[in-house]
Write a structure and sequence with these properties.
mainly alpha; elongated; 124 residues; 7 helices
Length: 124
């Protein structure tokens, strides 16, 4: 059974593909990990981001490394990522939760700046 993750997939898609390759039904993997079936479904459909604990438990049950799953998913996003986001994702001194929080703040600041640029300036 090939354990190499396909290129260009999101984290949820990678988890789903690995689960399917391991021939595990979603309910069985969810029970093994200790989460609900709907929660696992949301993770696989990229509607929810798994916590570090849940990601580690999923990876353990699939006999994979959580870091490998995250890095493979990050590769898919690198082409469209800015240099700042790329640097954050490659920083070994940050946890996944810290990376996510910083990325969210960075994107929020960017969106605010973009929105301000689009607003017509009203002079006195």
């Amino acid at each position: 059974m090939d354990r190499e993750a396909p290129r260009g997939l999101t984290l949820g898609e990678l988890i789903r593909r690995q689960r399917e390759m391991a021939e595990l039904p979603m309910r069985q993997l969810a029970a093994m990990v200790g989460i609900s079936n709907p929660y696992l479904s949301q993770i696989e459909r990229n509607l929810r981001e798994p916590s570090d604990r849940v990601l580690q438990a999923i990876a353990d049950q699939l006999h994979l490394s959580a870091d490998m799953l995250v890095s493979e998913a990050s590769r898919a996003q690198k082409d469209s990522a800015s240099a700042v986001i790329t640097a954050l994702r490659e920083d070994p001194d940050l946890t996944n939760a810290q990376r996510k929080a910083i990325e969210e703040m960075y994107e929020a600041f960017r969106q605010l700046t973009i929105a301000k640029r689009k607003r017509p300036s009203t002079g006195p």
